[in-house]
Amino acid sequence: MNTLSAERSPRYRCNAFTLMAAGEFPAPDDWEKCVPLNLVDTLTGLPPLQATEVRLGWSEDYLHIRYVCQDPYVVSDFTERDQPLYEQDVVEVFIDEEGDGRKYMELEVSPHNVVFDAFIHNDDGAGLNLKADVTWQMNGLRTKVESDDQGNRVYFIHIPSCNFKSPLTSGLCWKVNMYRIDENEQGEREYQAWQPTGAINFHIPAKFGLFQLV
User: Fold this and answer.
1) How many Å apart are CA 20 and CA 123, to the nearest integer?
2) pTM for the whole thing?
3) How would you label 23-35 residue by residue, b for 16+ Cβ within 10 Å and e otherwise?
4) Could you read off the pLDDT tens digit of each residue along the chain, which spans 214 residues?
5) Burial code of 111-127, b = ≥16 C-beta within 10 A, e = fewer?
6) For residues 185 and 60, what is the distance between their CA atoms, to the nearest angstrom?
7) Is residue 12 within 8 Å of 174, Cβ to Cβ?
8) Distance CA 88, CA 78 (A)
9) Residue 96 contacts residue 176 (beta carbons within 8 Å)
10) With the C-alpha atoms ordered 186, 45, 211, 126, is the resulting torsion angle positive or negative?
11) Which of 116, 138, 158, 162 is most deeply buried (CB count within 10 A of its CB)?
């Protein structure tokens, strides 16, 4: 078990989907059992103009993530995997299994369900000496983007457990952050985060939050 669990109380307790059969994905009602996170402006920590709710849960086979985004105006031209999705509208999750800020997964999904995944080497922990290995890909990743009856854009991300160093089990702890970039009709970009970084820079792992499977 990752020793991060002993450092401090976890900031997010990720509930298990205990009644799903092997390989199944959560039903709409299942997500209501997950603790919601509301992203904030990554620079100021204030509520964003376009709300973003994230819920996470897990099963033996997958880490499950759902973003619900207010998004009346979409900027998304990319069509191929590992194009620079971060230059337009996107949701992102960073997962640091070891917790030292030096190596972590970066996963992005565009409004049109295009994926960017890379393994990040952040040698100084401040994003100043950053290398992204885009040849690395998540095995068996499943994603979907759809609109709900309130006009929100909803992202579903299912990361198979085989992509992690340890089996998904209660008590496992990581350092994690969730992000969103959204551009409005005037070309102004809003940068959102679960744990604000204090800068227009998501690659500050010292600001990642503690995340524990329960």
Assistant:
1) 40
2) 0.93
3) eeebeeebbeebe
4) 454 544 554 589 999 998 777 778 999 999 999 999 999 999 999 999 999 999 999 999 999 999 999 999 999 999 999 999 999 999 999 999 999 999 999 999 999 999 999 999 998 766 567 999 999 999 999 999 999 989 899 999 999 999 999 999 999 999 999 999 999 999 999 999 999 999 999 999 999 999 999 9
5) beebbbbbbbebeeeeb
6) 42
7) no
8) 9
9) yes
10) positive
11) 116
Rounded to whole angstroms, the Cα distance separating 187 from 86 reads: 14
Which residue, chain included where needed, has tokens 């964003």?
48
**What does residue 206 show for φ and ψ, rounded to 5 degrees?**
-60, -20
How long is the chain? 214
**Distance, CA of 7 to CA of 38 (rounded, Å):** 24
Q: What is the largest CA-CA distance in the chain?
A: 47
Query: 36 pairs with which residues across the strands?
Result: 55
Parallel, antiparallel or unpaired: strands 12-16 and 40-41: unpaired
